[in-house]
Write a structure and sequence with these properties.
58% of the residues lie in helices and 16% in strands. By secondary structure, it is of the alpha+beta class. The longest helix has 64 residues. The relative contact order is 0.08.
């Protein structure tokens, strides 16, 4: 679906145009065309391929999707793939989308798949900054990339809150299997966020350091800023992963301690039963010549011994905090 198609000249929007008018707009000096697509059909991409002379391999990647975040150069044009990460509902997995961007001397085409949130705000912000938009398609690439990266931070904030709540639950004594499942689910979310963001470090590194593609010259500082955001995000992901690993270890340790407490209590209860059983077992042996068997107070004395022994054991167990 075609979301938007507009032509810009000297950093200012000239008009919204149709796909059929693209070729005429490309001939204007100091101008470029910005096309936005959402889940396009093959025929739509084929039409744009003919209009902009897009490389067939890049078009194939944009059509089929499921690409690793990357940057590829085809002559003077660029093809960039980014992954978007969006929060689902409570307890749901993160929603992963894909944005493919074609950048040429006088055009920029964004193709997004599987994303609910568009880039209307990016277009509006760019149009409000004509001095920057005058840099052309490369600035649009920066604005799109910056928007994708900025959307990672609410996700990392949500995951941070999630692990903090799980830690409170664990240290409140609620060490259940559900906590382990939730922690592993959180670790899986962090891995998905890492797979989307970390490869972009290599992409942005190619756009500001060393040999910079001719299309992106004079915008190295902007791409370096995106690279710094990604570096900070990578550090946050590593920190959260360490927290998750520690929380899993603590939860398992607390489960083991609880099991030990249960075993100690069961052993204490067993000993309270074992002592009377021992005394009763001794006097239950049917020998003719046994002391105390014919004593008048033998039975009360045996019961008193049982009560006294169990009372002493209870006293010692309480002092040892087994009860």
């Amino acid at each position: 679906m075609l979301v938007n198609c507009a032509t810009y000249q000297d950093g200012r929007k000239v008009a919204d145009i149709s796909v059929q008018d693209i070729r005429a707009s490309l001939t204007q000096p100091n101008s470029f065309v910005w096309v936005a697509l959402k889940d396009p059909e093959p025929a739509e991409l084929l039409q744009l391929q003919e209009e902009f002379a897009l490389h067939e391999l890049a078009v194939e990647d944009a059509q089929h999707g499921h690409q690793r975040p990357k940057l590829e150069e085809y002559g003077v044009s660029l093809f960039v793939v980014m992954h978007t990460i969006e929060l689902g509902g409570e307890g749901e997995e993160l929603q992963t989308g894909e944005v493919s961007v074609f950048v040429g001397r006088n055009y920029v085409i964004s193709v997004r798949r599987g994303t609910r949130q568009g880039f209307v705000n990016v277009r509006r912000r760019s149009e409000d900054e004509p001095e920057l938009l005058r840099h052309g398609p490369a600035y649009v690439l920066y604005a799109l990339m910056d928007a994708v990266v900025d959307r990672y931070f609410p996700v990392i904030d949500a995951l941070t809150e999630e692990i903090e709540l799980l830690e409170e639950t664990i240290f409140a004594g609620q060490t259940t299997r559900a906590n382990i499942a939730a922690l592993y689910g959180l670790k899986r979310k962090l891995t998905r966020l890492e797979h989307a963001s970390v490869p972009l470090l290599e992409v942005t590194g190619k756009l500001y350091g060393g040999r910079v593609p001719p299309t992106c010259v004079n915008l190295q500082d902007y791409f370096r800023d995106v690279h710094d955001h990604l570096s900070r995000l990578e550090q946050s992901i590593d920190h959260l992963r360490d927290m998750v690993t520690t929380a899993i270890s603590v939860n398992l340790s607390l489960v083991t301690l609880q099991e030990n407490e249960i075993v100690k209590r069961l052993a204490a209860y067993a000993s309270l039963v074992a002592v009377p059983t021992l005394i009763a077992g001794v006097y239950g042996m049917n020998f003719d010549y046994m002391p105390e068997l014919r004593m008048r107070w033998g039975y009360p004395m045996a019961l008193a011994m049982m009560v006294a022994a169990d009372g002493y054991l209870v006293y010692r167990f309480k002092r040892a905090k087994w009860f």
